[in-house]
C-alpha cells in the first residue's frame, strides 16, 4: 500500500477560525478556536492557549503550510511565533463566512450599544439614554463595527460619532442613596456599593444610612430599582451632580 507523503512544513487543522495579516508583501495566518478571537480582543479571554489551536504561523492555514523562519524574520523582525501570533491576533482580519460575520457583527454591536448606554448621558436631561435610542442613532449615523478592534475601541469610536448627531457625553454620576438600616441594612448596602465605581462618603443620621456614590450612568436604573424593591419604596435616590469624563480617563 502506498503512503501519502505530507511535507514537514504542512499541518492539518479542522474547525478553525483564521486570522490573516498581510505584512512585508506576504500573507500570514494563524489558526484559532472559533468564538475565541473576539474574546481575546475584548480581554475576556487572557489565556493565549485557549485562543490558538497551535502556536504556529502559517502562510496558508487551509493548506497547512507553515511560514518559514526567514519569512518571519523578514516581515516581523523576530522569529518567536507566539509573539507573532499575538500581533496577528491583535492586528489581523478575522476570516469568517458571511453568515458568521453578520452574527459576530450583531453581537459586537449589541455590546457596543450597551457600553455606550452604560457610560453616557444626555447632558440636557442628565439621564442615560435607553439602549434602543443609542442603537437607532448609531444606525442613522452609519456606524460600522470594526472587527479588528475590541469592544472598548469600538465603543469610544461610537461615542465620538454620536456627538455629531445627538447631545451625549461620557460622564459619571454622583449619587446620594438613603435608606433606613432596618430596610436592608448591611445586605442592601453591600449590593449598592458593588454597583458603584467609588464610595465618596458614608454617614448615619440616626437610623438612616446615607451613601454618596460615584457611578456609571447605566447603573442608575439598577440601583434605583434595587433600593425601591428592598425598601418597599421608602429609600431615596438623589442625583447630586454629573462629572464629565475627559478622553484620557480610563472608564472601562
Automatic annotation (TrEMBL):
<dbReference type="InterPro" id="IPR039100">
    <property type="entry name" value="Sdo1/SBDS-like"/>
</dbReference>
<dbReference type="GO" id="GO:0005634">
    <property type="term" value="C:nucleus"/>
</dbReference>
<feature type="domain" description="Ribosome maturation protein SDO1/SBDS central">
    <location>
        <begin position="110"/>
        <end position="170"/>
    </location>
</feature>
<keyword id="KW-0690">Ribosome biogenesis</keyword>
<keyword id="KW-0539">Nucleus</keyword>
<protein>
    <recommendedName>
        <fullName>Ribosome maturation protein SBDS</fullName>
    </recommendedName>
</protein>
<dbReference type="InterPro" id="IPR018978">
    <property type="entry name" value="SDO1/SBDS_central"/>
</dbReference>
<dbReference type="InterPro" id="IPR018023">
    <property type="entry name" value="Ribosome_mat_SBDS_CS"/>
</dbReference>
<dbReference type="Pfam" id="PF01172">
    <property type="entry name" value="SBDS_N"/>
</dbReference>
<comment type="similarity">
    <text>Belongs to the SDO1/SBDS family.</text>
</comment>
<dbReference type="InterPro" id="IPR037188">
    <property type="entry name" value="Sdo1/SBDS_central_sf"/>
</dbReference>
<keyword id="KW-0963">Cytoplasm</keyword>
<dbReference type="InterPro" id="IPR019783">
    <property type="entry name" value="SDO1/SBDS_N"/>
</dbReference>
<dbReference type="Pfam" id="PF20268">
    <property type="entry name" value="SBDS_C"/>
</dbReference>
<dbReference type="GO" id="GO:0042256">
    <property type="term" value="P:cytosolic ribosome assembly"/>
</dbReference>
<dbReference type="Pfam" id="PF09377">
    <property type="entry name" value="SBDS_domain_II"/>
</dbReference>
<comment type="subunit">
    <text>Associates with the 60S ribosomal subunit.</text>
</comment>
<dbReference type="InterPro" id="IPR002140">
    <property type="entry name" value="Sdo1/SBDS"/>
</dbReference>
<feature type="domain" description="Ribosome maturation protein SDO1/SBDS C-terminal">
    <location>
        <begin position="173"/>
        <end position="242"/>
    </location>
</feature>
<dbReference type="InterPro" id="IPR036786">
    <property type="entry name" value="Ribosome_mat_SBDS_N_sf"/>
</dbReference>
<dbReference type="GO" id="GO:0005737">
    <property type="term" value="C:cytoplasm"/>
</dbReference>
<feature type="domain" description="Ribosome maturation protein SDO1/SBDS N-terminal">
    <location>
        <begin position="15"/>
        <end position="102"/>
    </location>
</feature>
<dbReference type="InterPro" id="IPR046928">
    <property type="entry name" value="SDO1/SBDS_C"/>
</dbReference>
